[in-house]
Design brief:
heterodimer, A: alpha/beta, five-stranded parallel beta sheet, two-stranded antiparallel ribbon, 9 strands, globular, B: alpha/beta, seven-stranded mixed beta sheet, five-stranded mixed beta sheet, 15 helices, about 20% strand
Chain lengths: ~325, ~350
């Protein structure tokens, strides 16, 4: 994502994310991936549309439905798959798994398990950027479930007081795990929840709407301070692989949205209608993406498992006590 | 299965009153029992609590449909949605709300969906719940408060679905911390916790929700807090543990007996705060060797407290330094969970070192 994504790049990113998720789904069912897996199918336009208006030096932090965001930032397919498989070649060296994709080089801060906790983190990242006098924003994503976490409101307040270049983004896919927004939120206008922070509701299934909103949001955030974007979006899969996703919503609803609002299908028709590509070209692109994704997965499977030293004692700081090690801290530069 | 348990419980339930002491586990075992797993036993306890005390209510994320581990199945249907209800996704809010209810005299049983998520609620538990009675000079207390949460390794949980945070809460005067390891005792411990006039953090070993199965009394009974249980008697080594780790230690004790001829005394604390120092000390006085094992990381774990206390109390009797077999000082790993957890071989090796010291 070095330059602004155009229409074709947006299509390719969405299709790549979709293929990645489909492949991950299959791998999980084949028990190659264990633990937790939260798929992004249906929500691709949010990621692709935002990336189309962001710069590579901008920062992104999200919760656990993070594969698409990692790829959108420029993460490698192979490293993504390797992370899912828990291998050393993974973007987090196999330490995190699906919920904890990170990519420092691409300013992607993960990949967080405790929903809402990334809110103040995002405000802090934005503060860091501003503190260094940089023209960068931090996109801080959360879901409709996390929208009721208290620490988000603390983050809104700080961001507004100090005019932090933060774009808070609520990916409202209508369900927090199995709880509909009607049952969870007294105020379902998520774009208004930050009250004193300007907010906008966006059709998150339309990549161009997302791009337009993000352009505005970015300009505002850099010049004035935080904004909230509520992306109306939808996930086809359940919350995670252990949720079929049909206990709390109808198959009819899923089918209808998939048929009428699928972001990739919509964008494909738009490209064809605008004369930017024909069906054959797009099919060729789809095929090429599928091949690339399949090859990346095959390569990821060859990545070795982390060693004990890598996995258990990664990045340790050695304290003075000879028999004691404090784990989880960076090795000081002098060592 | 559930329906028969409910009706039996209603028929035989003794209404708890301050004038009569509750049935004990051994007394209750003489009556009718039903084969239940851990989550069913906990369900039965909550059902009994809701049936016998109108001030009890149950809430948390997704509890209404039965909860992500099915521990609260059918309770809403039976007791009504004004007493069993869902909360939004807000742990700090859930805990604070429960503290407030308890301050007014209700008996809230609040669920935190995974113990890994309890930290936004940490302030409410440590600063509000634990200190309410003290700071108000006993005008107010939140004795009716119980916070239940699944904890511990589950095979694939990774960093945020596997943690054992008991040490943080055991470091907080004003709280009680309880952890069952078997279904029958779990029912009695949860009932005791809900009825105890102090705020209790009740940690449930998620690993055992389905895999631990035994005959559980249908009756209303309690297992007293603050009392440890001796699983196995022995004169050579004292093993102390809690929760899911008990089953690992039981296997290690078996191995020690068959391979080394070493007879271990295996003690389950059940209540971690206040823990039963007397039972452990009496055992250590006899064996002279102590080993504590827990999934939680080594440094600052509850094992350190137990070893320090026993060293102080039984110093001259000790034949070897007290041993701890614990998780490593690292965030709970993803791929190498099997390597991280203190398994029976690590415990066996430590037992060997103890007797050969």
């Amino acid at each position: 994502s070095n330059a602004e994504y155009g229409m074709m790049e947006a299509y390719k990113l969405m299709q790549t994310i979709r293929r990645f998720e489909v492949t991950a789904d299959g791998a999980y069912k084949a028990k190659l991936i264990r633990g937790f897996l939260h798929l992004y199918n249906g929500q691709e336009a949010v990621c692709a549309g935002m990336e189309a208006a962001l710069r590579s030096e901008d920062h992104i932090i999200t919760a656990y439905r993070d594969h698409g965001w990692y790829l959108g930032r420029g993460g490698s397919l192979e490293a993504g798959f390797a992370e899912l498989l828990g291998r050393i070649g993974g973007c987090s060296r196999g330490n995190g798994g699906s919920m904890h994709f990170y990519d420092k080089a691409n300013n992607f801060y993960g990949g967080n398990g405790i929903v809402g906790a990334q809110g103040p983190l995002g405000a802090g990242i934005a503060f860091g950027a501003k503190f260094k006098n940089r023209d960068e924003v931090c996109v801080t994503l959360y879901g409709d479930g996390a929208a009721n976490q208290g620490q988000l409101f603390e983050a809104y307040n700080m961001a507004q007081l100090w005019s932090l270049p933060t774009i808070f983004v609520c990916e409202n896919n209508l369900y927090g795990m199995g709880t509909s927004i009607e049952r969870a939120s007294a105020n379902r206008n998520f774009y208004k929840r930050a009250e004193y922070v300007p907010g906008m509701r966006v059709d998150g299934m339309d990549v161009l709407a997302v791009r337009a909103a993000t352009r505005w949001a970015r300009d505002h955030a850099v010049a004035h301070g935080p904004v909230v974007l509520e992306m109306e979006t939808y996930r086809y899969a359940g919350h995670s692989m252990s949720d079929p996703g049909t206990a709390y919503r109808t198959r009819e609803e899923i089918r209808t949205i998939r048929q009428n609002k699928d972001p990739i299908e919509r964008h494909r028709r738009r490209l064809i209608d605008a004369g930017m590509a024909d069906l054959a070209e797009l099919k060729a692109i789809d095929k090429e993406i599928k091949t690339r994704v399949d090859e990346a997965f095959a390569a990821a499977k060859l990545s070795p498992e982390p060693t004990v030293a890598e996995s258990l004692y990664a990045h340790q700081q050695v304290l003075e006590l000879p028999t004691h090690r404090n784990i989880g801290c960076e090795v000081p530069a002098s060592q | 299965m559930f329906k028969s348990v409910r009706s039996k419980t209603c028929v035989l339930a003794r209404r708890f009153s301050t004038s009569a002491s509750p049935l004990t586990l051994s007394e209750a075992m003489k009556g009718p029992t039903t084969k239940l797993n851990l989550f069913m036993a906990l369900n039965a306890a909550m059902d009994t609590a809701l049936s016998t005390d109108p001030s009890v209510c149950l809430f948390g994320e997704d509890v209404a449909f039965g909860g992500v581990f099915r521990a609260t199945t059918d309770l809403r249907e039976k007791h009504g949605d004004d007493r069993v209800f869902n909360t939004p996704l807000c742990e700090q809010g859930i805990a604070g709300f429960a503290v407030g209810m308890a301050a007014v005299g209700a008996t809230p049983v609040a669920e935190i969906q995974f113990a890994d998520y309890i930290f936004p609620a940490f302030d409410q538990i440590v600063n509000e719940a634990a200190k309410y009675r003290y700071r108000s000079g006993n005008q107010f207390d939140v004795g009716g408060l119980t916070i239940r949460s699944p904890y511990g390794a589950v095979g694939h949980g990774g960093l945020y679905h596997s943690q054992s945070p008991e040490a943080y809460f055991c470091h907080t005067p004003g709280l009680k911390v309880v952890m069952p390891a078997t279904p029958a005792a779990a029912k009695g411990l949860l009932l005791a916790s809900i009825r105890d006039k102090n705020p209790v953090v009740f940690l449930e070993p998620k690993w055992l929700y389905r895999s631990a199965v035994e005959e559980v009394p249908d009756a209303d009974f309690e297992v007293p807090l603050g009392e440890a249980a001796v699983w196995r008697q022995g004169d050579d080594v004292t093993l102390v543990g809690w929760g899911a780790q008990m089953h690992v230690m039981a296997e290690a004790a078996e191995l020690a007996a068959s391979e080394l001829g070493v007879e271990c005394e295996l003690i389950e604390l059940r209540t971690l705060l206040p823990w039963d120092q007397a039972t452990v000390a009496a055992s250590v006085e006899r064996t002279g060797r102590l080993l504590v094992s827990h999934e939680a990381p080594r440094t600052g774990g509850l094992g350190a407290e137990i070893c320090a206390q026993m060293q102080e109390q039984c110093f001259l009797r000790l034949e070897a330094p007290p041993a701890r077999v614990t998780g490593y000082d690292t965030p709970f790993p993803l791929v190498f969970e099997k390597l991280y957890v203190p398994d029976k071989l690590k415990i066996f090796a430590a037992i060997k070192d103890l007797v050969n010291y």
